[in-house]
Structures are given as structure tokens and as C-alpha cells.
Amino acid sequence: MINRRSLITALAAAPALGTLGAVLGSAPASAADLYPSNTALYADPTLVEGVDYGRRYRRHLIDDQGPRGRSSFVRTTVIAPHGGGIEGGTSELCLAVAGYHPAGLAPTPSAGPTHDFWMFEGLRSAGNGELHVTSTRCDDDVARAMCGGSLNVLSLHGCTTAKAGLEPGARAVLVGGLNPAFRRYLTEELAAADIRAVTASGEEEIAGVSSENICNRGLLGTGAQLELTAELRAAMFAPGKNTRPERAANTLPLFWSFTTAARTAIRRLEADQPVL
Question: For 183, what's the count of Cα atoms within 13 Å in the CB-facing half-sphere?
């Protein structure tokens, strides 16, 4: 059980949710990244928002005006920091895990629940990899605010099997982040859906174990990160339709099996978190 005293203690223990470290530049930028932060990317005059990149989010209203009632904290925010054409399929998964059909954004399932979501997307026809900003350097104001106001953050990413340290062709998910309960629920639910789940290890970008990683910038200073291999993501969409314009309307059963597994893990985690 989480009460407000323990929550305040957790907040105090997480140094400004990593903000100070980001300001001081203690998180190393990825050597492969062209931009050291989202702020630097947004400041590039050669890039045009809506043409080169886009940002999408949905934040639910929390209304606490009555003297006798009290709204709880936002439970979970789902994010895709490298969506669109950067790590293909993660935008669509972010929407679906948050409870919205990626084609049209209808609540799916219609009875909910829905979660807050945020994503950064590469919109180019080619060269979207240049827009990748490593997760420890994600300083988008809306992303920071949404994650910082949530108990839990689930961050969705794509990787290659070589980056994941897996055999070529592997359809797998690497489960990382600093929340052990969240990692366990995700691993169990993915396995129950017959989706290979592997504990992430090695470099921070894959394991998600830095306090400055955007997945760990929630109210509790912990979260979860899922890295899906390219082969797994490709198998979630109809053959020949695994493109940014076509993916949303051409999902396969594996896409929804993954979505259901992630949503079930979120439900189990939230059930452990009655906030007083």
C-alpha cells in the first residue's frame, strides 16, 4: 500500500526526479545520437514540427474541487519516445496499451480503462534515425510533466536482436526499468501470451536502469521499459503493411496479444497501489 507519507519520502529520495542531473549534464548522450536532448532537436531550425517530427499526447482531467472528495494520483502513463519511423510500431503499441485503437483512437476495449500517453514520432519518409534522442536525455516538457505526475510509467521501444544480445531472427521483448513488481508482472503476462520475455541487462539504453531514464521519472522514481525486437514488431502487422502510414489499420492478433498482456500487467500493478 502507498500512503502519502511514503510517497513524499520516495519523492525526496529521487533527486528532483532526475531533473538536476539532466541540467548538470550527468547523463551521457548516446554516441550514436545526433541531438543530445529533445530541447536541442526542437531548436534545430532545419527541422519542422509536423513534417520531420511530431508529438502526441493525451492527459486525463483530474478534478478535485469538492471539500469532501479527493481525486487520486494518475496511475499510469504509457510513452513511446522513439515512435513513428524511428522505432517502427511503438507509436501504435503505445496507443493500444493506453486503451485507444491506433486507427482512429476509439477507446479499445470500449469499457476501458484508458491511460495517459505521450509519444515523439519521426515523420520523415527516410532518415528518421537521426531524430533518436536517448531516453536518459528525453527532456520534453510535456513528457517530463506527465511522467512526473504518474505513479507508473511504461516506456515502449524497438531494438535489433544484435543490440539485445539475442540470436538473429528472435521475436522477443527485453523487460527493464527500476520497478521490480512491474517487471515481474510484465514478464509473467507476456509469457502467458506466448511472447518471449527476457530480463534486460547490459547497457543502460536497453536495461532502463538509470534514474534519469524517462521511464523512471514517475512519482515513485521507478518504472518499466520494454524493448521489442524488429522481428517481433514486424510480426504484429500485415505483410507489406509495416509502414508508418499503414500499420495502424493493419494490426495482427500478435499485436493485440501483446497489448492485452501489457494492459493486464498494468492492472495488476495498479491493484497493488491504493493511494490514501
Answer: 21
| Torsion angle of the four alpha carbons 154, 160, 164, 170, in this order, in degrees rounded to the nearest 10 | 100
Q: How far apart are CA 249 and CA 167, in angstroms?
A: 30
Q: What is the pLDDT of residue 26?
A: 30
- pLDDT value at 93 more than 90: yes
DSSP SS3 for 68: coil
Give me the domains of the chain, ranges plus CATH numbers: 4-54+73-271 (3.40.630.100)
Instruction: Name residue 198's beta-bridge partners.
Output: 174
At 275 the pLDDT is 66
Q: In this structure, what C-alpha cell is assigned to residue 110?
A: 470500449
Q: What is the pTM of this model?
A: 0.88
**Percent helix, strand and coil across the chain, each to the nearest 5:** 35, 20, 45
Mean pLDDT over the full length of the chain: 88
- What does DSSP assign to residue 234? H
